[in-house]
Structures are given as structure tokens and as C-alpha cells.
Design a protein that fits this description.
Elements (H helix, E strand, L loop, with lengths): L5 E10 L2 E11 L4 E5 L6 H8 L6 E6 L2 E2 L5 H6 L2 E4 L11 H9 L5 H5 L7 H10 L14 H13 L5 E5 L7 H14 L4 E5 L3 H7 L2 E6 L2 E6 L1 H6 L1 H9 L14 H9 L1
Parallel strand pairs: 3-8, 3-9, 6-7, 7-8
Antiparallel strand pairs: 1-2, 1-4, 4-5, 9-10
Helix pairs in contact: 3-5, 3-6, 5-6, 6-7, 10-11
The chain binds adenosine-5'-triphosphate.
The site of adenosine-5'-triphosphate (ATP) has 10 residues, from helix 1.
Length: 265
């Protein structure tokens, strides 16, 4: 296993007296591809917000042997933790290459980065190859397909040498082919980095997760392999309980977890 692991202990986040994250423990081994699943409002995004310093939290978040909690956002990022949001945040007017260059370009002048470059830095070349965007490097990011924008955003983390990637619903709104390509991309990235994926898409989770954490009402309900999580009675209950609730766009089939368990039983 490569990369750095993430160890979270007794993580708690409250918003005006409401406890959104209620004593979460996570052990994510180096090189893991961990899926964080759970019903709407379970606290998934808030856990990632706490790990990346966007919300105040108590407890402990250790990465690469160091405590992250209490550090400002930019220092956590400098320690090799990067994230994407549900909506891709690329510079639409700039080319793919310029987006990657800017992400990689701490210390270089804006003019240098915006100039069409003959010698593309090695990390940018690697990120273009890894994300499959080499052929699109001179296109404005704004014309990319939805999936390609997500891949560019992941590429922007790769050029920053992020060792822990936290991805918030990376395949939401993607076509079937884009989902498959994204799963393969996560596998490639996971060869030398640790990846955590928040996801509602249960088919995607089943295909690509190495391990799974199920959150419910701010707590860890179950942690284990896909098979272990699917076989857990409490997990089935939580998903059956939401079978009548509306799903977000691109979300899973209601009761997707128990349906599979039933097939296997
Ligand atoms: N800034 C905030 N202020 C107040 N409450 C918040 C804030 N952010 C999140 N919450 C609440 O905390 C709970 C957990 O939200 P969170 O977004 O982490 O859930 P989630 O599991 O990511 O849900 P989803 O799958 O819908 O994105 C929800 O009840 C939400 O309304």
C-alpha cells in the first residue's frame, strides 16, 4: 500500500447546537479507495469539511503522522490533502493546460502560466495522461463535457501532489461510460495515493470501492468491505427506511443496498 493513511478519532461538528457529526472514527489505510455512503444529511460532506478545515470540529484528524485539526485550510492543503466539490470549480475561460498549470504553479508568475508553453512541466504531463485529457489540453475548460471537467479537477489535485484526495460525488450527473472511466481513473490514482469518495451511486460503489464506511445521523453505522456492509442488518434498515424518500438527481435506486443483499441471500 502506498500514500498516507488518515486516522480520525471522535470527530464532532455542531451547527448552532445541532450535532451533524457525532463522534466519528475512521481508519483509512494508505492506498485505500474508501467510499463514504449514507442517506442525505448523514454528515458525509461535513466530515470532509472538517478534515479539510472548512468547518470547526473537535476530536483528532491525523494524516501523515501529523494532527490536522485546528490548522487553517491552506496548511492542511499544503500537507497533501485535497478535495473536490459536488460542482466542478475549473476556470472555464482557460485551457485545460492553463488550469493544470495554475494549480501546479505556486511560485510562477501569472504571465508565465498563461503563456502557451513549449515545455510542459512533468507533473502536468503526468496529470494529463492519468486523466486522459492530453488530447484536449488546448481546449477551453468551459467546452469540456461534464465528466471531463470532473477529471480536470482531479488532475488539478494531482499536479499539487495531493496524497489524500477527498471527492464529493464525483460521478453525479455522469453518463454510464463516464462513470466507468471515472472508476478506472480512481483506481489509477489509488495506486500511489489514498482516495475517499462520497457517493450516492451504489452500483459505482459496488464496482470500485476497496472499503466502505456507512454514516447515519452523524455516526458510523458500519465500516468494512462492500460485502460486509451490504450484509449488515442495520445498513439495510437505514436504506429501506429511505426507500420512499426522493433521491437526488443521479442518485441510487431506492433500497439499492438491500436489493443486492436479497439477491445474494
Ligand atoms: N453550515 C451548516 N449549517 C447548519 N447545518 C448544516 C450545515 N452544513 C450541514 N448542515 C447539516 O448537517 C447535516 C449533515 O449535512 P451533510 O451535508 O454533511 O450531509 P451529507 O451526508 O453530506 O448529505 P448529502 O448526501 O445530502 O450531501 C444535515 O442535517 C445538514 O442540514
Amino acid at each position: 500500500m502506498n500514500g498516507d493513511g488518515l486516522t480520525v478519532r471522535d470527530l464532532r461538528v455542531t451547527f448552532d447546537g445541532f450535532t451533524a457529526v457525532d463522534g466519528v472514527d475512521l481508519d483509512i489505510l494508505p492506498g485505500d479507495l474508501r467510499f463514504l455512503i449514507g442517506p442525505n444529511g448523514a454528515g458525509k460532506t461535513t466530515v470532509v469539511d472538517a478534515v479539510t478545515g472548512l468547518v470547526k470540529a473537535t476530536g483528532s484528524v491525523r494524516f501523515g503522522g501529523e494532527e490536522m485539526l485546528g490548522r487553517p485550510v491552506h496548511r492542511i492543503a499544503r500537507n497533501g490533502i485535497g478535495r473536490t466539490f459536488q460542482t466542478a470549480t475549473v476556470f472555464e475561460e482557460l485551457t485545460v493546460l492553463q488550469n493544470l498549470d495554475i494549480a501546479a504553479g505556486a511560485g510562477r508568475s501569472a504571465l508565465t502560466m498563461l503563456r502557451r508553453r513549449r515545455d510542459v512541466p512533468e507533473p502536468v504531463v503526468r496529470a494529463l495522461e492519468t486523466t486522459g485529457l492530453t488530447g484536449l489540453r488546448d481546449r477551453p475548460a468551459g467546452v469540456l463535457a461534464h465528466g471531463q471537467k470532473q477529471w480536470l479537477e482531479i488532475g488539478m489535485l494531482l499536479v499539487q501532489d495531493v496524497r489524500l484526495l477527498l471527492l464529493d460525488e464525483p460521478v453525479a450527473g455522469m453518463s454510464h461510460d463516464e462513470r466507468e472511466a471515472t472508476g478506472e481513473l480512481l483506481r489509477r490514482i489509488g495506486e500511489d495515493r489514498t482516495v475517499v469518495v462520497i457517493e450516492h451511486d451504489m452500483d459505482f460503489m459496488r464496482s470500485f470501492a476497496r472499503s466502505v464506511t456507512v454514516l447515519h445521523a452523524g455516526k458510523v453505522l458500519k465500516q468494512g468491505t462492500v460485502a460486509e456492509v451490504q450484509a449488515d442488518a442495520r445498513v439495510q434498515e437505514v436504506y429501506l427506511g429511505r426507500a420512499t424518500e426522493p433521491e437526488p438527481a443521479g442518485g441510487p435506486e431506492p433500497a439499492a443496498v438491500p436489493a443486492t443483499v436479497a439477491e445474494e441471500a
